[in-house]
């Protein structure tokens, strides 16, 4: 048995598409660094869990639960968040036309759209420390609406449907708004994806997480996960498997030389790890190090791909998967992530 | 309302003669019964390159000041609730007092346990604290490693502290969520702010770099005094 490997879902829009509400720089760091680190740490925790399960190491299993909750929660929350945002001025941002039944439910619950916005904003600004604010449908689709906050990266209760969430970690707004978080909260309404919210309210949430087989073809990885994302013209190189094999081999070698993956992740919990190096830096490290007896097949210029957000993601995903490859042990995949998260809504 | 203000004024006068004075290890300042933002003993830019002047300025003038304002508001409401004998209102204020009072305490201690290099920042501890660190952790470097590991392990916002156990006199490293202050059994000696606002403008997601750089501006003399 091996642990499932999670990969970074592509954004359904370009990094600068949410400007001026959220800057390109924030989106890049938030998606490529913070979200990626939750995924890396989740994968490491799941791998460690498999090992601990096989050896009946109960103390380790217990100690892993909080890491899985925090990093799994970070992965779930961000995956939901990207999809519940849309560029300003897009049809999805118009509540009345994009979310008729949700709008009706909001008005019946809070009296008016404005009253809801005010109540939601007050909850967001009342958060102490890091966390999220959510509009949820209690007990399943078309349930009673409620505003809830979750601390750090706790996901919403498994029984509730997260209609949309707003990230109130400082990393979500600080580079642009500094201590003016009210400005961020005010702006977020210009980019809420009410079409996605309506879908979640009426039909529940699709699983935001996707498990990717290490041997999956590159085109499969590059396929957008959201119905409204454009299909990227894949400029990803076709030799992903050989790249995979190369990184797999060199990383395995490095694992003997260096400390193991688990130890590394143990030291950093949060979704921001300097060792979550950019792909360029990571490639650079690998290429410069004396561990590179092999020559990579046409070194992937991933970081240099600057065509669009989606294409960039394609590039990095292939490399990520090359790395995630070595984090898995042996064959076998958990097909249903709900088995891991016990959440029928996710 | 007038009665409340005079109560707080009396409290202030009992605690000291002047309208503005220092009290306790945290160096908290009050004016007419209200907590006030303490001045820094160095310029905003004096901790560069470890912490940028812009971070210091926003952190002190905006973030810390907001904790002070909100703490004073909460205390005013508390006094009102006390005057009315409203127990549930007093209990309901607890999170706001803990969060904003904690934010005020933590930052006040933090500014004091930092110093520019020119004023001794980064100079290793000596005397009994130095010995306690060596005997507990083996060496100052080993202590820093352990402290940085604790900082990196904080999930969400929070602080890491070198504390002294009041019962045993032993030192130890403890992390606290959000603005939870070091109170009760433990006495705060040295704190490092691991909130993103403490480093993000300069280090973004590379927080381990911030944790590494901050030792260059730790004021061990201030920590020794607390020990």
Automatic annotation (TrEMBL), chain A:
Residues 257-276 have a biased composition (Acidic residues). It is found in: Mitochondrion matrix. Its cofactor is Mn(2+). It catalyses: 2 superoxide + 2 H(+) = H2O2 + O2. Residues 101-200 form the Manganese/iron superoxide dismutase C-terminal domain. The keyword Ligase does not apply. Coiled coil: none annotated. It holds the Pfam family Sod_Fe_C. Residues 5-85 form the Manganese/iron superoxide dismutase N-terminal domain. Belongs to the iron/manganese superoxide dismutase family. This is Superoxide dismutase [Mn], mitochondrial. It comes from Penicillium subrubescens. The lineage of its organism: Eukaryota, Fungi, Dikarya, Ascomycota, Pezizomycotina.
From TrEMBL, chain B:
It catalyses: 2 superoxide + 2 H(+) = H2O2 + O2. Residues 36-115 form the Manganese/iron superoxide dismutase N-terminal domain. Mn(2+) binds at residues 59, 107, 193, 197. Residues 125-226 form the Manganese/iron superoxide dismutase C-terminal domain. Its EC number is 1.15.1.1. One of its GO terms (cellular component) is mitochondrion. It is an enzyme of class 1 (oxidoreductase). Keywords: Antioxidant, Manganese, Metal-binding, Oxidoreductase. Belongs to the iron/manganese superoxide dismutase family. Destroys radicals which are normally produced within the cells and which are toxic to biological systems. This is Superoxide dismutase.
């Amino acid at each position: 048995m091996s642990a499932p490997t999670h990969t970074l879902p592509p954004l359904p829009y370009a990094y600068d598409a949410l400007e001026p509400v959220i800057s390109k720089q924030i989106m890049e760091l938030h998606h490529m660094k913070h979200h990626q680190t939750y995924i890396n740490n989740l994968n490491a925790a799941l791998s460690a869990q498999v090992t601990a399960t096989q050896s009946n190491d109960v103390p380790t299993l217990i100690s892993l639960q909080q890491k899985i909750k925090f990093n799994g929660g970070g992965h779930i929350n961000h995956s939901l968040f990207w999809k519940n945002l849309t560029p300003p001025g897009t049809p999805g941002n118009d509540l009345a036309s994009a979310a008729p039944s949700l709008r009706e439910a909001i008005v019946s619950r809070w009296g008016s759209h404005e009253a809801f916005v005010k109540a939601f904003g007050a909850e967001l600004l009342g958060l102490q420390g890091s966390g999220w604010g959510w509009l949820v449908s209690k007990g399943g689709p078309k349930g009673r609406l409620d505003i809830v906050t979750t601390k750090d990266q706790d996901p919403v209760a498994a029984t509730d449907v997260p209609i949309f969430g707003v990230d109130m970690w400082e990393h979500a707004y600080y580079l642009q708004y500094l201590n003016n978080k009210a400005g961020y909260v005010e702006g977020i309404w210009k980019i809420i994806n009410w079409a996605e919210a309506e879908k979640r309210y009426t039909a529940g949430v699709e699983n935001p997480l996707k498990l990717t087989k290490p041997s999956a073809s590159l085109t499969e990885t590059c396929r957008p996960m959201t119905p409204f994302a454009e299909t990227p013209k894949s400029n990803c190189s076709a030799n992903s498997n050989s790249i995979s094999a190369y990184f797999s081999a060199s990383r395995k070698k490095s694992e003997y030389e260096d400390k193991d993956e688990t130890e590394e992740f143990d030291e950093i919990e949060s979704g921001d790890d300097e060792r979550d190096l950019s792909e360029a830096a990571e490639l650079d490290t690998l290429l410069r190090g004396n561990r590179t007896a092999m020559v990579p097949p046409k070194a992937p210029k991933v970081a240099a791909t600057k065509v669009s957000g989606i294409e960039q993601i394609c590039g990095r995903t292939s490399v990520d998967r090359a790395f995630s490859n070595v984090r898995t042990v042996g064959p076998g995949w958990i097909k249903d992530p709900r088995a891991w998260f016990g959440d029928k809504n996710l | 309302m007038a009665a409340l203000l005079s109560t707080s004024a009396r409290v202030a006068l009992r605690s000291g003669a002047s309208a503005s004075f220092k009290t306790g290890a945290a160096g908290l300042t009050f004016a007419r019964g209200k907590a006030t933002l303490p001045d820094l003993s160095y310029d905003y830019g004096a901790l560069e390159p470890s912490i940028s002047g812009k971070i210091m300025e926003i952190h002190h003038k905006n973030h810390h000041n907001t904790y002070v304002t909100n703490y004073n508001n909460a205390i005013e409401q508390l006094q009102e609730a006390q005057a009315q004998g409203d127990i549930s209102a007093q209990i309901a204020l607890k999170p706001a007092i803990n969060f904003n009072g904690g934010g005020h305490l933590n930052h006040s201690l933090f500014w004091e346990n930092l110093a520019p290099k020119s004023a001794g920042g980064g100079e290793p501890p000596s005397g009994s604290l130095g010995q306690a660190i060596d005997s507990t952790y083996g060496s100052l470097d080993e202590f820093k490693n352990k402290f940085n590991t604790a900082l990196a392990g904080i999930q969400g916002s929070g602080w890491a502290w070198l504390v002294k156990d009041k019962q045993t006199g032993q030192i130890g490293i403890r992390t606290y969520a959000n603005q939870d202050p070091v109170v009760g059994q433990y006495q705060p000696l040295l704190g490092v702010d691991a909130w993103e606002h403490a480093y993000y403008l300069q280090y973004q997601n590379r927080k381990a770099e911030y944790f590494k750089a901050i030792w260059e501006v730790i004021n061990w003399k201030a920590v020794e005094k607390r020990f």
